[in-house]
Amino acid sequence: MKLRNPLTARRKRIAYADEYTFRVQLPRQLTGPLIQVAKRLLMAHVVLFTAVVIVYFDRDGYTDNAGGGVTLLESLYYVTVSLSTTGYGDIYPSSETARLLTTFAITPLRVLFLIILVGTSLEVLTERTRQQWRLSHWRSTVRDHIVIVGFGTKGRSAAETLLSAGATKDQIVVVDPSAKVIDAANADGFAGVVGDATRSSVLERARLDRARQIVIAPQRDDTAVLVTLTARQINKALNIVVAVREEENAPLLRQSGADSVVTSSGAAGRLLGLSLISPSAGQVMEDLIQQGEGLTLAERPVTKAEAGRSPRDCPDLVVAVIRGHRLLTYDHPEAAELQPLDRIVVIRRRHEEQPTPKLRKSDEDDTGELRTPPRMQPAKRSWHTPRDDLGQ
């Protein structure tokens, strides 16, 4: 009995997995069968009438065994039997010009006509080649995109928020281990990668080395930690935003390289508690985090007229000031006077909102890359001067 080499068997399994499991799927536009048949019939008629025009233009170079000249109807008859490869021989090219036209014009049109007729079979054969070309073109052109790991409720909501903020579907790549989820993402117009994001080969297929941001929203916190470590290893300058279920795992994710950590269960619990205490306040918070409707949070640079003034003098409601790599609360002592290079986070109405500006390194050194979000510096509070955490 012949024993198999375990290393060779493992390489074959990995190669099979990389080829059929961890694959990239680009969105496709599916058309109905009637539309496809109509398109092929239209192309066949275009080829047919093009050949008729060529033959009729040089009708004096063709001979009809029945006698007489070649009319338009006889040109149509000759082209029909010629393109269908029937060839009765009753009409044939007799002059040198007609034979040259038949060789270099009618023959290619005949081949094209046959290709259109059997297009359904050839489409199956050429689909893989076409997909490989699209995939190669996508890999060479995609850059500065956003990778979303996990396309469940959290991942889909993040994609919708990005789209409402001005991102395009071409700038978003979805990674999920479920092929059905990736099919749904392709139907929505997103490129997708099927595979486990904890493997570096999967993230490399999503071209994470060229990405500018990644949203990690898996179902398990341990998976989020592994994906964060892998992503940070591939791209050191990547902006990583992670969603976790338990707050105790947030420090671990920050140590793993995450720039922002959102506790989904804790945030939902706080919103539930706020809605119990004040249903109206809960609706306002829901409106703020719902991008594109009613009130919305936005970030913009400080204008020349606002520089040197207090945040309270701004036309928008200022909730935070970004200075360098720090995020200052509105009541922080250092945020009492706005500086020209500051950026402010404001609350504004939807109809007043302008396109959301990108979070760049600075206004002077603008490289087009997103910088790491600054950390919040909480203001020192005293129990003698309590305030409402929900407003000013």
Helix percent reads 40-55%
| Tally of alpha and pi helices | 12
Summed over residues and divided by their number, the pLDDT gives a mean of 76
Q: Give the assembly state of these chains.
A: single chain
What's the alpha carbon Rg, rounded to whole Å?
Answer: 32 Å
Report the order of strands and helices. HEHEHEHHEHEHEHEHEHEHHEEEEE
Uncertain spans: 13-21, 352-392
Which structural category fits the helices and strands?
alpha/beta
Task: Tell me the fraction of residues in β-strands, as a range.
Answer: 15-25%
**Spatial ordering of strands, largest sheet:** 1-6-5-4-7-8-9
The biggest sheet amounts to: 7 strands, mixed
What is the 3D shape?
A: elongated
Distance between the termini: 81 Å
Task: Please tally the β strands and state the result.
Answer: 14
How is this structure best described in words?
There is one protein chain. The longest helix has 25 residues, at 33-57. The protein has a 7-stranded mixed β-sheet, sandwiched between helices. The chain has a 5-stranded mixed β-sheet with strand order 10-13-11-12-14, covered by helices on one side. A two-stranded antiparallel sheet has the order 2-3. Mean pLDDT is 76; it is low at 13-21 and 352-392. It is α/β, with parallel strands linked by helices. The protein has 12 helices and 14 strands. Helix 9 (221-234) links the parallel strand 7 and strand 8. The protein has helices spanning 6-20, 33-57, 72-83, 96-117, 119-141, 153-164, 179-187, 200-205, 221-234, 250-256, 264-277, 279-289; strands spanning 24-25, 62-64, 91-93, 146-149, 172-176, 191-194, 213-216, 239-244, 260-263, 295-301, 317-323, 326-329, 343-349, 375-377.
